[in-house]
UniProtKB/TrEMBL annotation:
Signal peptide: none annotated. It holds the Pfam family Put_Phosphatase. It comes from the Eukaryota. Substrate binds at residues 19, 99. Its cofactor is Mg(2+). PANTHER family: PHOSPHATASE, ORPHAN 1, 2, PYRIDOXAL PHOSPHATE PHOSPHATASE PHOSPHO2. It comes from Piprites chloris (Wing-barred manakin). The gene is Phospho2. This is PHOP2 phosphatase. One of its GO terms (molecular function) is phosphatase activity. SUPFAM superfamilies: HAD-like.
Length: 241
């Protein structure tokens, strides 16, 4: 009996957007209007590439970025929740599927000593170039019309589950914890026995409600959370059953 926990990262594990938090490193802690207005829907990764280039051009180095990123606050109750999952790893497999990047997530999890909690992290690959600039790439290519072009979380989840099945691992239940519009696609892939946990007041909750109003509700159960304590209460029930 094993459960799979799937976490988004921004506004779920951490209480901010890691990509916008890095702007604190920019001159006067803001981006020029031209750069800020250059974002095109569905092309966030390319936009962040330009942001990182701007930071590099302004002499912002890796150590300064790291110092800034590890000050990002965790969501209320999240530290306790991750500690609880870490103590019960024989029951929970735990992955992150995020539109952030490998460098930011790695820094933040390692600084808080949570990297052991997660079995895998699926996010946009990032690295520092020989000139010290942070670069980021799309996670993968996909054909899903609903998702941003760099990442379809449903595809990631499906491929992960297929790979686990090949290893002889199947899950009693999947619990998907997220907040954003790009979390809807994987939630719609969940089955009747699974649980979606959208964050209260955020886009994912609103989109799931809208589907129910349109009489095409998601198949899985839906449990809304406002603090990670709510998630922990549910997981404690789950392992008692």
């Amino acid at each position: 009996m094993k459960f799979l926990l799937v976490f988004d990262f921004d506004h779920t594990i951490v209480d901010e957007n890691s990509d916008t938090w890095i702007v604190k490193c920019a001159p006067e802690r803001k981006l020029p209007n031209g750069l800020r207005n250059s974002y095109q829907p569905g092309h966030w990764t390319e936009y962040m590439g330009r942001v990182f280039a701007y930071l590099g051009d302004n002499g912002v180095k890796e150590d300064e970025m790291k110092r800034t990123m590890i000050t990002i606050p965790f969501t209320a109750g999240m530290v306790d929740l991750l500690g609880f999952i870490g103590k019960n790893k024989e029951l929970f497999d735990c992955i992150i599927v995020s539109d952030s990047n490998t460098v930011f997530i790695d820094w933040i999890l390692k600084a808080a000593d949570f990297h052991e909690v997660f079995d895998e992290v699926f996010t946009n690959p990032a690295a520092f170039s020989s000139t010290g600039y942070l670069t980021v790439q799309n996670f993968h290519a996909h054909r899903c019309a609903k998702c941003p072009k760099n990442l379809c979380k449903r595809k990631v989840l499906k491929e992960f589950l297929d790979k686990q099945l090949e290893r002889g691992v199947s899950y009693t239940q999947i619990v998907y914890i997220g907040d954003g519009g790009n979390d809807l696609c994987p939630v719609m892939f969940l089955k009747k026995n699974d649980v979606a946990m959208p964050r209260q007041g955020y886009t994912l909750e609103k989109k799931i409600s809208q589907l129910a109003e349109d009489l095409s509700p998601v198949q899985c159960s839906v449990l809304v959370w406002s603090s990670a304590t709510d998630i922990m209460s549910y997981l404690k029930l789950l392992i008692k059953e």
